[in-house]
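User: Hi! I'm working on a homework problem where we have to compare a predicted structure to a textbook description. Could you give me the structure for the chain below?
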Amino acid sequence: MTPEAISEANDLLRGKSPAEAVKWAIAQADGRAIVSTNFRPYEAAILHLVTQAQPDIPVLWVDHGYNREATYKHAEELKARLNLNIQAFVPKLTTAHYDAAHGGMPEPTEENEAAIKAFSTVMKLEPFQRGMKELAPTVWFTALRKVQNPNRAELDIVSPDNNFGSLKVSPVFNWSDEEMEAYLEEHDLPNEWDYFDPAKADEKRECGLHAAWGGKAVADK
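Assistant: Happy to help. Predicted structure tokens:
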């Protein structure tokens, strides 16, 4: 889509519900829509929204191996509840191999920024890019929301993704935590609060999937 068309789409969708935004995006996808997930808090909302519109939509999940037990149990519960079409991609290194070769996950400090990006490239970005190449989506659904961090506040419901060449659609972009919670309650969906992203460590840091440096980091490998 041209920048003008994307701007028009956002003007249209700001007045629509997330469910209507999903239906609009699927109509643009020519049968090649996917949704990505990491099973973090509130992810059940986006997974429910998209599977209501397209039950067999591919669900791209990078299982980097560092998830906590509660997150894996949450993933299994949602997979069963929503009959998710999980497309799992894993890093080329196991967690044991990475820990032995690199000393484990880097501490989330400013001094370790380079090490955190290197970790993210190997354990998250490379398998994600592999998944995107294999699935080749024209539309990529995400659960990005503007309240999550300043970087994401600069995006919109619909945005071009230069890293993967897809149209990125975030139906719940303008929703607050309270609205997400209300959606989960309305549809009797589970949540999971023990989630930890080793490639980010805090909400202000981007792991690279939604930042320009992520595409360059993988391309340079």
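For your comparison, note the following. The longest strand covers residues 33-37. Residues 211-215 have pLDDT under 50 and may be disordered. Good luck with the assignment!
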